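pinning this so it doesn't scroll away 📌
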Amino acid sequence: MSIAAAFMVPHPPLIVPQVGRGGEKQVEKTIRAYEQVAGEIASLAPETIVITSPHSVMYRDWFHISPGSRAVGSFADFYAPQVSFDEQYDVELVSAIERLARKNGVPAGTAGEADPALDHGTMVPLYFIRQRYKGGRIVRIGLSGLPLETHYELGRVIQKAADETRRRVVFVASGDLSHKLQPTGPYGFAPEGPEYDRRLMEVCSKGEFSELLRFDEGFCRRAAECGHRSFVIMAGALDGMKVRAAQLSHEDVTGVGYGICTFYPEDAGQPDPYVKLARQTINEYITNGKKLKVPEDIPEEMKKTRAGAFVSIHKNGDLRGCIGTILPTEKNVAAEIISNAISASTRDPRFPAITPDELSALEINVDVLSEPELISSPEELDVKRYGVIVSSGYRRGLLLPDLEGVDTVEQQIAIAMRKGGIDRDDEITLHRFEVIRHR
């Protein structure tokens, strides 16, 4: 299945720190959820990110697909011109969408470009995604004044085009919820506002996409919703799939609703390329005693990025090997994974080398590390978000983030110290890092 996942996200420029200038802190839950989405997209390593935006070019009776090979944009309109983007379009996928839209009677195409610059409904999602994932081209599609059913049909066309071109696609449906949630908000209050948010989040958190088509358009107008048509196109792109849905956040602190949900096709059957590479490496080395060469068919991001990485191996729920590097030692992250997968399976001093008869029972995970950042206090740690490196002289201990049973920063530091042979009274230096988890 070519649609690897879909994400429903808001687009308030406020949450970009250079725009918010501290004001973004009032929507911290939304920011944390956005960061999680960005990490999940990075772990999927899509070839193409399809973004539907209410603020792209919009016509009453036409879906505009941005043409050309690239587009640029910035937050200059929000007094942050230093935050800019230069994105490549997936010309082949755009062409397939345009052709299949004509074939299926959906009025969509690249004609009618009124403004080539990237809009903020596209750039806000990209701001978070590009913090974690630099790869993949984009497709940008505007909404229309056509019925909801036609938006759904466009989504189905996108799915067919992704299948036809064999693209590994992530779909990002950009859109805020109601703009009329509070009398003190910028757009005032309407009783339909909170009701819209409640219904929309209930529907999307359960993946009941057919219900999106049952929202009365008059009700949606009175609620001053922003992204409903964007969400409907996304639903069409997931048509016919059994989807695992999850709500990450919903906030109403500014008078505008911000909701984030994730959707994963359960029958997608696409292995994570990072985990796939680690497994191929282990199978080849344990079976034939040969070190795997970096494959040609892996995502470009794995060939171009350098990073430290940990490969962990479990068998029947128990750890069977874990070796990694804090900083990159190889020419790219793919080579880093290959090297560490061999070490984790054969050189972890806590375990004997893995044998061929164990291979089918192994669970393999890969954690890719950001560059460690020196911090001055444990208060700058968060056990769910950051791993920690504790150093004292030549001794050093590391602990990954978000581990079961590690609930406090104090626990995290203490365990890392024990792993590094560091005594409680020793003077220590702390570094933090983030990871992108591949399962």
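📌 and the second one:
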Amino acid sequence: MKTVVVGLSGGVDSSVAAHLIKAQGYNVIGLFMKNWHDDSVTISDECPWLEDSNDAMMVADKLQIPFQTVDLSEEYKTRIVDYMFSEYEKGRTPNPDVLCNREIKFDVFLKIALSLGADYVATGHYCRKTVVNPQSKSPVYQLRSGIDSKKDQSYFLCQLSQEQLAKTLFPVGELTKTQVREIATNLGLVTADKKDSQGLCFIGKVRLPDFLQQKLQPKTGDIIEIPSTFEAYHKHELNSKAISLKTRATKYCYSPENGQVVGTHQGAHFFTKGQRKGLAVGGTKEPLFVIETDVDSNTIYVGQGKNHPGLLRSVLLVKPSEIHWIREDFKLNVGNSLDVLARIRYRQPLENATLHQTAKGLYVAFSTPQTAITEGQFVAWYLDDELVGSGVIS
């Protein structure tokens, strides 16, 4: 009998995943990851990881499977938290959920599970795995969207490798969230009606700005509004195919002389492109959105309305070192292109795009301009419902 270690998070999805795996005849072990106990940074007045751990333990008891807690806080701090602070200080916006999966759950945690004798790990992610040529010596693993389009979490796994997928199972990927909760209710699991976590990946109920402010010092700076008539927008011609990919992927460059001061903020590194809340500036005809941050001068540039041209770009660049192919057999050579579906954030509808591989990196050219393309975030590209690659936006 093969053994599967299930990452029990204390939520309903992983709870049902453990049940489904056991029902399939596997020997199941529940493992809870404790990823934070650094007293120098206060996460919350509550103790969410302890509450989650207790829920996970009760689920394991109900399902009659062994249960253990593993402390990954040192690895989490080094690989996730320190990296996040470093990226925000540079004015970039990392995605902690993608990083957690790449660095913790499907690396450190997976290796621990295999060291315990597991054949696979299973998680509660809403996605699916299929196999091309399963009987061959070199099967190819496919990461597909979950059946529940509203809960599809394939984007968060966009940095996984063939080796990681080979050892991973996604039991709830064929189900909807409603079906998962019904199963949990019928089993009498304590997590059946538990709300989904809204905090940092594997940490809990903390708001990101509150977390960052404990390490990144507040510093007063100007908020400058850039008019939608800014001359550079017209020179750039967002939708013009005649302009080079490099030009269309280049960020707009602003200076204080391009607009007017409309307020102040407490640190440019606390803000990200597309952000609306937290500016505390009123009196404008339309809401203000962050269109650019400059951490060197500690300046935030904003524009009125969600259709402000400063928010829109149709092309982005992924540097060569940041390109990742789950399906390495689709990897492009310099000069080659590939039509795909792509997204730049979780839950964004997939949009038509073309990949262009150049010596400078991989250009992703969308058929329509995208809102708030943000450096440090991930772009993921699909063929139909299969996620085949991703990269960090430069």
